[in-house]
## 1
Amino acid sequence: MGVVPIRTRGQALQLSHQSDGFGRSRLPCATDDPYLGLSEAEIAKSGPPNLVREIFKKAAEGSSSNAAAPSEEPRSSIFSGGGHTLGSNEVESTYIPDPNAQTARPEDEDEVAIREITSWRDGFSIADGPLLKYDDPANQAILSAINSGSAPPSVLNVRVGQPVELRVAQRTKEDYRPPPPKPATPFSGSGNRLGAPAPSGEASGSGSGSTSMPGTFANSEPESIRTMFEVDNSQPTTSIQVRLADGTRLTCRMNLTHTVGDIRSFINASTPGAASRLYTIGTTFPNRILEDPTQTVEAAGIKGSVVVQRWV
């Protein structure tokens, strides 16, 4: 694909002519004129053909001149580059740079932006942009600017001074067709896997009308789980240390008539989301799982003891 550079507003604009699909770059001629046979009213309706033909002509001429350009000369085989001098005990080795080396330039200084302009029957479009009607004076000004090599950076979405290769596509026998919509963005966000405990901040910050991810049941817990049980100070009491699965230690003060189920309720109320994952509670020594939720503290023999929570 050949290109022809022109200077405009301090930036190099290149027009590139696309082939006809068979590897041939065609120069506009009388038989290739897309506006041949149209009346003046139809030409005015179709836009400024002179500007369009001129842009295609420059692009095609660029293809021809680029194809005839001589290839780069072979590089010299003479050694070039920097080096170090031989040192000694008295004189240190020093580096001598290459006197012919070119000064390094910023990486993006020569970065060429590639843009495509498509000429349709009813207007033209730049890249995937909307249709720009030929009869709009503002759009005619854009074509004139491109033809003269002075297209503003805002039109081509480039920075000032950036070189641009403008590829021209001729589809003047077709009406404008907008590009297909981009595919929908895949799901992004966060959630909880089934059976995983809900984050404490999420559980505590959710309102009564909010929904939860499948597998979490913080909003569907019965009221007895979300509230502390009452302790009757007129009856014998005891303190049980509860060690949670995450290492947290809690102290539960309860009556001897409270049950193993009350201990589980205490854990669920103290750590939101705990009820959404299966766990067991048991003693430390001897190691015994407390399976009967109706068994009292006194009957279970855990008065003043340590109860450990373990994930299943």
## 2
Amino acid sequence: MSGHTWITRVSALLGAIATASWLWVSYTYLKNQVGLDVIESMLPQEQGQIIAGVVLPLCLVWTILLFIVRGAALSSQTRQLLSKMERLTYPDDEENTRVKDITRQLQEQAESLSSASSDVERRLSGLINAFKEQTKQLTGAAIRASSQTEQIQETLVAQQSSLEDVHTSIHSSLDVAREAVKEQVTALESSGVRSEVMADTIS
């Protein structure tokens, strides 16, 4: 049992004994010296004074006991704090060993995290560089594809123009041929008419 607990129990026991004794003494005194009938016939303020005379000493006793208990509790807590401070200020060998082990583990974890961070950073840098290179290649391919598309469009336009020129030339040639055929037909028809006239003349 700790000192604080022992003092608390002793104070409570003393307070209970003192309270019971004081109440018994007060009751005996009032009964024998004053008389209960007289107390009942007193004015309220007089009865209040009697009650205060009985209760106030008990309040004083219990206040003193509570101060004693509180002081014991503070003393116990102070001793515990001093003991903890002493252990923190002058730790024993076991505590030193445990602190060193924890410190070493933390350092190892920090080194592992640093190494992992460096590895991740290198990988990210590699991925970023690869992405940039692929972006450049895609951009170049897009530019080349755009240039080729423009060349194809220009070629198609030129071919379309050539086809239009050929179509125009063929159309013109056909017109000329049709005119020539018409002229030949007309000439033949004229020759036939003249032949018929000459035949009629001769006959």
## 3
Amino acid sequence: MLVPAVCAAVSANALLTEFGLGYYLGWWFTGLFAAALIPGALGMRAWRAGRPRHLWPFGTVVWLAVMLGRWALPEEDWQVSLVAAGVVSVILVMVILATLPKATPPPRSTVPAEALAAFNTWSEAVLQEGVLPILYTWINEATIAEHPTLLALREAPALVRADHVRMHVPTPASEELVRLVAGSEGGSFAVAGPRGAGKTHLLRAFCGGRYRDQTSAPDLAVLVSAPVEYVPHEFVLHLFAETCEAAIAHTTGHRTKRRPGPLASAAHENLVLLNYVRSYNREVGGKGGFKGFELNGKRAVTLAGRALTYPELVKRFRQFLALAAAELPGRVIVAIDELDRIGAGEPARRFLNEVKAVFDVPGCHYLVSVSTEAQYDFELSGIGLRSVFDSSFDEVVRVDYLDHRYAGALLRRYVLGLSAPFHALAYAMSGGLARQLVRTARAIVELGRERRARPLSEVAGTLVRAELLRTCRATADALTAVDDLDGVTALLRVLDEQPYDLYAYAQQVIKSYDGRSERVGRLRDAVGARVVFLATVLALFTDDVTEERLAAVDLDQLARARRYAGTNPAAGLDLLEDLRQRL
């Protein structure tokens, strides 16, 4: 680099002297400025070639040229000298760049497909679970709908995918469960609540890491369901196998060494042992003759079909969980979902009494979803009425129905452009059930995609007619198996009608049967209460409704009446009558 710089300095000085500018620029400034052109050109070439690390000479020489050149400039007319130096610099840079060969950029490093796929998955998760929910919430809270009773839906990708884990919204039940797990080094916790309230979503979100401190190590989380057919031995066997597979996947994904650790080795060994008991057979034989001597041997591994006994299975499972809790820096979480599917009463108690043998492992947290009956039995232990639920769980967390505030928070996070009246409509039709809220919101989204700017009354009418049709069809199907087929004829005819006035239709349904069948009477009362609820929804959600009017109505009471319509029709009708007087 020094030789081209000196040549450039001499050439520049001779050229400037020829034109009479040497006096103004001076030898030092001309040489240093010309010397700066060479590394500058090389730096530009390195930039074009994609090698920024070769740019360091450019900054050093330019700095020296500026400092020394300014010192060498004459005090008079230094502006003219600087302009002349700039002209010469441009000419020399053009000449140098024209003589340099075209640089070939180095080949780009190939990124492994697995790493690229993992990055894409991570970026998609950040977008869908982090950015969009917060962005949707901010936009919905900051935007005031110009026409709140018109369906002006923008986006709802989470409802289309129906990913309930991503749509999970923290509730008081989840906060209590997080507090209990964080405050203990192990234990068993029951998650109780009605079906559809969100117990499964809470367990999935917990096992998926939604409630884990991001500064702590990842959890070893296992989530299994408890089908009705399982006997305790088979269920524990299945739970043990799932835990071993999860441990292998967990250690493989977070271990840099090729050699498996003690936890992965134990998991592989237990997976083999859960299916078979290995036995080894060795045979050695030899023979001799005139042509020589021959020795042969054989070693075979035979897999016998003797299964572990239940005490052996429980012992090995507890030992494996203790090893996992000792080896892993994170928590060990075993979640059992849908235990209430086994049945109510004695079947569930008997099953839990057998399965709880694997509970109470130090360092391991068990999360079990149970029915509301388990919570009742657990609470009764405070007055001396102990049960298997009380002896199996340390605490019981109740997952209650969503209230209007939490339902609105969920919809604002995952639906963009849905105004408050439509939030209230979706909540009322869902009855506070998280699963039904997602279904109702998805139905509203579909209506908004079919035609924009649908009025609120039209959307409410469409939802009400669909709900009425499903209720009447389901009731008619149930009436075909009752013991009073002759007495239900009038009720079946009423169920086939398409009413205009729902209040009058509800009275017609209630008066259509006066027989002695208790089952038919319960079905009749449930349909009548459901029709009155739908009529109340139509009366409330009109095109002239305002947010002030919705705030004056107890929407939580309306959702509660929706739930009572199927379980306690008389209580539901009382709530609806109270609401009608305030409309």
## 4
Amino acid sequence: MAGNQMAATRMATTFPCNNCAGQGKNKIAVGWCDKCMKFLCTPCKKRHQKLKFSSNHSFMPVEDYHIFSLRKERPIMFCRTHPSKVISMYCRFHNHTICDLCKKDITHFNCKTLDINSDGTGARNSFAINDLNQRLRESSLTFGKILKNRNKNLKALDKQKEVIVTQVQTFRENMRKSIEILIKKLLEDVDIDMTDYKTRLQTQIDDLKEKRKAIASHLEMIEELQLVGSNAETVNFIQDCAHIQTRHERYLLSLPESVKDLKLDLSIKESFQKLLNAEKLGGIRLTETEVEIDVPKNTDRTQIPYSAHQLGFDPHLCSPVHVDMDILTVRENEYNNYKTEPCHR
């Protein structure tokens, strides 16, 4: 049927040359350029192959293009080993469909085969199609549940992100309030310390002014005594002033320990400094929990390809391949050992 469909399509359909059609001419195409995506007649094809930019383009005959088009529409009809050939028979030993070329190959030359079109009595209502249909539906249902869970988890991630963003914003606001409180306290401490340091300096200044004022008064007294003072007044002043001057000089000797330049600098706590220099404030912690999946029964079974009888072929034609071995009961390891070997039976 598939072969007849290809033959009918090949005979019924022709394609006009795209180049000629653009010039108002009507010529039948003989090939298809897969690079330019154009149908070309014989003269246009020759010119196309002579041009430098298209000399390496490959052409597909129109007959092959029909097969190519049909394969894209119904790829299941074509042989997996020879993609251009339609399947025509079923190999009972290897349990898969083959084409005429496969049958001539050494792999299937001696295999028993069934004609798909004449020997198939009920593939559409067979055990294989019903079993496969049930398995597909069970798998689809399971995949659907898993997809529902994945989409739910995907939406949950978006909501979790919103929560995290809110938490970050709250953290930032709390940080701002805390920093404002700390800055206010820091400025208050600066004012208190500044008042203390200024008081210390002002006390020294007042003390120095007072002592210098006393010295100035004594200098004036000396000038006056030298002009009009009596010996008794001068001796008495010298004795009193000498004691006062001795105290001044002792005070001067002690000043290097008490007179110091005061310089103020800001000192930030190391913990806060590390926060300012931190490359990251935080991150996302992922927690993974297992999801309970209801896997269909027999999902893990070892699946040997369906037998000819299970595929709906005439039961009278489906006797065991070997007298003492039925393909339905072949163990998987035995099947794997001979399924790819040439058949000589």
